[in-house]
Every structure is written in structure tokens, then in C-alpha cells.
TrEMBL record:
Molecular function terms, GO-annotated: DNA-binding transcription factor activity; sequence-specific DNA binding
Protein name, entry field: Helix-turn-helix domain-containing protein
InterPro entries in the record: AraC_XylS_family_regulators, DUF6597, Homeodomain-like_sf, HTH_AraC
Annotated PANTHER family: HTH-TYPE TRANSCRIPTIONAL ACTIVATOR RHAS, HTH-TYPE TRANSCRIPTIONAL ACTIVATOR RHAS-RELATED
Family annotation (PROSITE patterns): HTH_ARAC_FAMILY_2
Domain HTH araC/xylS-type: 172-270
Source organism of this protein record: Aneurinibacillus migulanus
UniProt KW keywords: DNA-binding, Transcription, Transcription regulation
């Protein structure tokens, strides 16, 4: 049973929110919780200043609908896996609706391996054809988020019914072990538990996801670290960091700079690791 729920900066840094910017998340229905981490929205009203929207790696793939795009064909696009933080400068009004998929099962909906979306965005119309335009039209006329989610879930369930779901593939089993161990596992230990060679596992991850298992393990571990830090007292910071394998300050700071682009003391009220 997957217990992984990734975080994004607006859920951590409440001070980055303002009256012109609102980020919200919504849980999927029971039938889709093995495939969808959450649905999310960003509602931004441009005023006198721009908004810097920070995105951090979470091991997920998103379908994003830019509902204020002037072109129907460019409303929906796929954002693939990332291994470093990104900052997007919002300078115009935006209303975004996103579907955050778990990377190991998103191929049931995108008909292509995640590796084909690495490093660039792909318009949903190029994957779904006219079905993407119909989906966009239905979402744009919806008046409530609950209505959008209902329409999206009907489409996603239809996709599942048209595909043969296999939960026993090497990638799926590997990811479940990584989730179960909160990213505190080596590729060698993963190979031993699955009775596969490390080379086979690396090849599968590279082919299907476009990233190495070590990279994805590091991201899942970092996300679990953020989750626990967010739900704990500042005095427990050092103990939690050590639990996730960050035994010295330089190692911790290196990961925060790579994955978040900020120091841990800028996000959490912490004392540095000695």
C-alpha cells in the first residue's frame, strides 16, 4: 500500500502565499489513489509585481491545464519528471489545474513511457488527439473545482478500463519498495529484495522513466524528509535529518540547494547539524 504524498513549496512555506496567489490540493477518489497523488490548482491574479513559483522534484508527472490560455490546443500539456528545482516567473493572470501522477503508473494514461517527456513539455493533444480538445472544452465550461475533478476522473477511469493494468512489473515493484522504505534504501538493497541485478534495475528505470534509480531514491527520500520536518517540532530537526541519512551539514545543504534551491534554515526554523 503506497503511503507517499509529495509536497510542493506552497504547502511548506505559507508565507509565500498572498491575496493574489492561491495554491490548493485535492485528493483523488479511492479508485484512482494508486495512480494520482493529488489534483492541484494555482489561481494567480497579476498586479504590480510578478510571482516566482517554485517547483521541486517529487518523483511525479503532471498533466497541467492552463485554463487562461488563448489557444485550446495549448491549454493542456504534460510536465515530466524533474531532478532539480525550477522557478517559473508568473507575470500574467493564471488559473492552472493539475493532475499529479505517480511516475510508475502514469503510462496507463499517457500511452508513452515517462522517459519520452524528460526535459520538455508535450501538449496533450499530441498524445490524446481530439480527445484532449474535448477534455479541455469540458473543463473550461465547468464552474466548480469539484465538477472539473469529476470530469477528469471519468476520463482517467476510462483510460484504465482500456488498458491492462499490471502491478507486478519490475518498475512498479521497485517503486513500492522505495516508497515503503521512504527512500532510505540503496540500489544494491533494492536489487537484493527484488532478486534482480542492479544493472537490470538501472536499465529499467532509464528506459521507462529517463532517470536512474539512485536519482529517484534521493528525491523520494528528500520528499519524506520534508514531510517529517513539516510535521515535527524544530528541535527534532537534527534527529530527523540523521534518520534520512544526512549525517553532516554539507550533505544536507547540497541536497537542499539541488532539490529546493534554498537552505533548510530558510524554510524551517532550525539549528544546523553539528
Amino acid at each position: 500500500m503506497r503511503l507517499y504524498r509529495p509536497l510542493q513549496p506552497p504547502k511548506l512555506q505559507h508565507e509565500v502565499l498572498d491575496s493574489n496567489y492561491r495554491y490548493r490540493e485535492y485528493f483523488p477518489s479511492k479508485s484512482l489513489e494508486s495512480y494520482v497523488a493529488c489534483y492541484w490548482t494555482i489561481d494567480f491574479h497579476a498586479m504590480d509585481t510578478n510571482k516566482l513559483n517554485r517547483i521541486i522534484p517529487d518523483g511525479c508527472v503532471d498533466i497541467i491545464f492552463d485554463l487562461r490560455s488563448p489557444s485550446y490546443s495549448k491549454v493542456a500539456f504534460v510536465a515530466g519528471l524533474t531532478t532539480k528545482f525550477e522557478i517559473i516567473n508568473l507575470s500574467q493572470n493564471h488559473f492552472l489545474f493539475g493532475i499529479r501522477f505517480f511516475s510508475e503508473t502514469v503510462h496507463y494514461f499517457l500511452r508513452n513511457p515517462v522517459s519520452s517527456f524528460i526535459g520538455h513539455r508535450v501538449f496533450l493533444e499530441d498524445i490524446w488527439g481530439n480527445e484532449a480538445i474535448f477534455m479541455v472544452e469540458e473543463i473550461i465550461v465547468a464552474t466548480e473545482i469539484s465538477e472539473i475533478i469529476e470530469k477528469v476522473e471519468l476520463k482517467l477511469i476510462k483510460c484504465l478500463l482500456l488498458n491492462e493494468v499490471n502491478a507486478d512489473g519490475l518498475l512498479q515493484k521497485s517503486m513500492q519498495y522505495i516508497y515503503d522504505h521512504q527512500g532510505i534504501i540503496s540500489v544494491g538493497s533494492l536489487a537484493e529484495k527484488l532478486s534482480y541485478s542492479e544493472r537490470n534495475i538501472r536499465r529499467t528505470f532509464q528506459k521507462e522513466l529517463g532517470v536512474s534509480p539512485k536519482e529517484l531514491i534521493s528525491i523520494i527520500r528528500f520528499q519524506n524528509l520534508l514531510q517529517e520536518l513539516n510535521n515535527s517540532f524544530p528541535s527534532r530537526f537534527t534527529d530527523i535529518a540523521v534518520k534520512y541519512g544526512y549525517y553532516d551539514q554539507s550533505h544536507l545543504i547540497k541536497n537542499f540547494k539541488c532539490f529546493y534551491g534554498m537552505l533548510p534554515t530558510q524554510i524551517f526554523k532550525t539549528k544546523p547539524i553539528r
